[in-house]
What we know:
- By secondary structure, this protein is an all-alpha fold.
- 86% of the residues lie in helices and 0% in strands.
- It has four helices and no strands.
- The protein is rod-shaped, with a radius of gyration of 28 Å.
Amino acid sequence: MSNLSSLLRHPLLNTSVLMTAIGGATYNLRSHHIYNLEEHEARMDELEGTLRGHIGYIEEALDRLEGKGGVKGAKMAEIYGKRGRDEKEQQ
């Protein structure tokens, strides 16, 4: 029993167990954080497209009210088709 007690009090063993636990927890939290960032980016891209589509509908309605005419749905398709991420990659 004294050998086990002295082994558990050994500073090198305690330090290595502690560092392993901290490293494992850090790796686990990092992987969850990266996953959440990717999910958030996907949701924001979807929201951006939805907002661009609604802005297109609003601009078309405004054009019709002002009497400018135009093809129904053309502006919405033009604005919705643009994505901020695609524009950044092309530049």
